[in-house]
């Protein structure tokens, strides 16, 4: 059992609220109490963490990450636990390892990795299930997915894509033949279904919502663009306040003006920040893999050799700062994009920094909003800032 943690005089950001100069006690994997600084007795054996330049938020949840630290989940699903052990340094306490378009056997391997569980003594960010992105995508919006592995919707592929078998989220193009049948089947199997890599016009996007689609994968990217006489998937997603969307806010995938537009349409609770990170996240520039594809990672981006964007290398705290800068979001509302909104997508309880809540927390330096650590099930992970 992790030692008790006493955060003294921290700023607590727990959307939709912020409290300054609070004391927080963590023990037995849960938040025991939160009180104005100096108002509660502290156990003698608790580890004290000064909070003068510290912000405490609910733990951050990543819905779309393809890999990091040199590992690609599609190429090597067995690396999921190794990467998960390092994700706390990015501020992530839970995530959906994302498998892009791949042979069916690769997806089955990834399911087995999750079902087998972590190695003995493991600690890290918790995988909440797989995000399977493909292979039922529109070839005209394939992005960095290998075109030879794309396929028409096939009920045989998804029979064991259930929540009990480790699948939590599936991205598909609703306009493909029989795609809506798969949407209904996946929903019945406890899986969240998202619209992405799509050429769907407005009517087909709306039909997707009616069939059970409840999320939009990386809004704007790999989607039919908006037109005032044919709003398409982008327009349909922006027009539905009940359908959350993911957004890659690295300043490359989406123009700052479009980020502001999405924020104004969705706002806190319906916009999830995602990195869509590749194996190059946390690594020097070089050549890496994204499933079957070779990608070139430079200082700020990751691309196929032909220049097509291939995921990102943005850090979660940089995406938070970008959202605040591009869209004018407050800190409290921006934090909701890493906490409240992804919890809503997955049907999880509203995350709080409150007594009785799980001790899954992200720690930011108040002066620059950089991640300096996390707490996961009461275990503290501090980032080495050199």
Structure report:
The longest helix is centred in the first third of the chain and has 13 residues, at 104-116. The protein is globular, with a radius of gyration of 20 Å. The strands form 5 sheets. Strands 1, 2, 3, 4, 5, 20, 21 and 22 form an 8-stranded mixed sheet that branches. It folds into 2 domains: 5-57 and 351-382, Urease, subunit C, domain 1 (Roll), CATH 2.30.40; 60-346, TIM Barrel (Alpha-Beta Barrel), CATH 3.20.20. It is an alpha/beta fold and 386 residues long. The chain is built from 9 helices and 22 strands. It has helices at residues 80-86, 104-116, 179-188, 202-211, 232-239, 256-266, 316-327, 331-336, 340-346, and strands at residues 5-14, 17-27, 30-36, 47-50, 54-58, 60-65, 67-68, 71-72, 92-100, 126-127, 130-133, 167-172, 192-195, 213-216, 245-247, 271-273, 286-290, 293-297, 302-303, 361-365, 370-376, 379-382. The mean pLDDT is 96. A hairpin with a 2-residue loop joins strand 2 and strand 3 (30-36).
